[in-house]
Design brief:
Length: 221
């Protein structure tokens, strides 16, 4: 696609939306590390300098996209947690169910997990103070929503809900980096299967981590 110069705020918002949508489509094809401004500008039909008028850097685009994808995911997570919820279950059973839902939901969203994995070490660099401030406010808002959902289904977690949710997202990001091995590593695993003994399968690894966190946070009966 190609664009004429934006003359109004509405046109500028359309350009921003096109940049975010194009980046989102790229992430369905490639990991975060392979997304470049050059390829993004080519696909969106804008010069690189034009893209930088709407977002100050590649990292700023990806941070905005991460915040938006997280907000969309939380709407879906609310439905996933509500489906089949049973108030008659014990606290331990509800903790296990929460871990099942969270691990399944996050493992199905590998792009979001990849963004979480890149957040601290990559995406929060090469951005201005204002961009980081905007991102952190959005992150805290999303974290509060997630904590509220978890607390609704597992009230025993109490004031530790936000800490728990932060740990879940951090672990999802960390584990995702190991759940999609590059071709060279896959070749090694195929030739020497014994070396794949600790290969990470995202969903069960994430579920184990979530259960471990919950066991430490739930009050002792």
């Amino acid at each position: 696609m190609t664009f004429q110069r934006a003359r109004s705020e509405e046109q500028r918002e359309l350009r921003r939306r096109a940049i975010l949508d194009t980046t989102s489509a790229m992430l369905d094809e490639m990991p975060v590390a392979e997304v470049t401004l050059n390829e993004l500008s080519r696909r969106v039909g804008l010069a690189k300098t034009a893209v930088l008028r709407y977002f100050e850097s590649r990292e700023a685009v990806l941070l905005d996209l991460m915040d938006q994808r997280t907000a969309v995911w939380l709407v879906e997570l609310e439905r996933e947690l509500a489906a089949g919820a049973d108030p008659c279950l014990s606290a331990v059973q509800r903790a296990e169910r929460t871990a099942d839902v969270l691990s399944r939901s996050l493992a199905a969203r590998t792009v979001l997990c990849d963004l979480y994995g890149a957040q601290g070490g990559v995406l929060e660099h090469n951005v201005s103070v204002e961009a980081v401030r905007r991102h952190k406010r959005a992150s805290l808002d999303n974290l509060a929503v997630m904590a509220g959902l978890v607390r609704r289904h597992l009230p025993e977690i109490g004031d530790q809900a936000e800490t728990f949710c932060l740990h879940v997202l951090l672990v999802a990001g960390a584990l995702s980096a190991y759940s999609s091995p590059p071709p060279s590593l896959l070749a090694v695993y195929e030739s020497e299967p014994e070396l794949a003994v600790h290969r990470v399968d995202l969903r069960p690894a994430l579920r184990l981590s979530i259960i471990t966190s919950l066991v430490g946070m739930l009050p002792r009966s």
